[in-house]
Amino acid sequence: MNEIPTKPYLLRSLYEWCVDNGYTPHVAVKVDSKTQVPSEYVKNGEITLNVSPSAVHKLQMGNELIEFSARFAGVARQIAVPVANVYAIYARETGHGMTFDVDAAAKPATQAVAEAEPSAPREVPALPAPANTTPPQPGKPGGGKPKPQLRRVK
């Protein structure tokens, strides 16, 4: 019997935790031919997506695919991201979340989904800020403080 991977359950759980705490959930995704996102927003083969209820419409977080519609520069787009390609989910405000290995995404789809489990704890560089935020200014509230690092939740 094939066991369902834990990754989609962890993604849904951390998404719910973010929303319940009033945080803005973001997913960081490795983009490949199976990823349906606006290519003009992809940087270095990756994209970070705001998946908060106010930013997306008809969000479906399945065991193999995350689907929703969202507006990019005012234009509605349909987004489809394989769960195997998600390498992080985190709260924008705190950086709290979880990272995942996505090396399995390059393997055949059935094998990649089965092997896309959370990775062992490791040092994680800060994820890039979403495009719709501005850096804190010195002298203003929150100014001069470093952005929190993404942390692994156990």
Structure report:
By secondary structure, the chain is an alpha+beta fold. It has one domain: Roll (SH3 type barrels), CATH 2.30.30.220. The chain contains 2 helices and 8 strands. It has helices at 7-20, 109-115; strands at 25-30, 46-50, 56-61, 65-72, 75-82, 86-91, 96-99, 151-152. The protein has a 5-stranded mixed beta sheet. The radius of gyration is 16 Å and the shape is globular. The chain starts with 6 loop residues before the first helix and ends with a strand.
Short note summarizing the structure:
The chain has one domain (7-152): Roll (SH3 type barrels), CATH 2.30.30.
Question: What structural keywords apply?
Answer:
SH3 type barrels; 154 residues; 5-stranded mixed β-sheet; alpha+beta; 3-stranded antiparallel β-sheet; 2 helices
The tally of domains stands at 1
The level-1 CATH class: Mainly Beta
Number of helices: 2
Q: Which CATH architecture would you pick?
A: Roll
Order of SSEs, N→C?
A: HEEEEEEEHE
User: What summary fits the major beta sheet?
Assistant: 5 strands, mixed
Strand order of the largest sheet: 2-1-6-7-8
The coarse silhouette is globular
CATH evolutionary superfamily: SspB-like
Q: Assign the structural class, choosing from mainly alpha, mainly beta, alpha/beta, alpha+beta, or little secondary structure.
A: alpha+beta
Q: State mean pLDDT (0 to 100 scale).
A: 79
What percent of the residues sit in helical stretches (DSSP H or I)? 10-25%
| Approximate strand percentage | 25-35%
CATH topology assignment: SH3 type barrels
Number of strands: 8
Q: Roughly how many Å apart are the termini?
A: 27 Å
Backbone CA Rg:
16 Å
Spans where pLDDT lies below 50 across 5 or more residues:
105-146
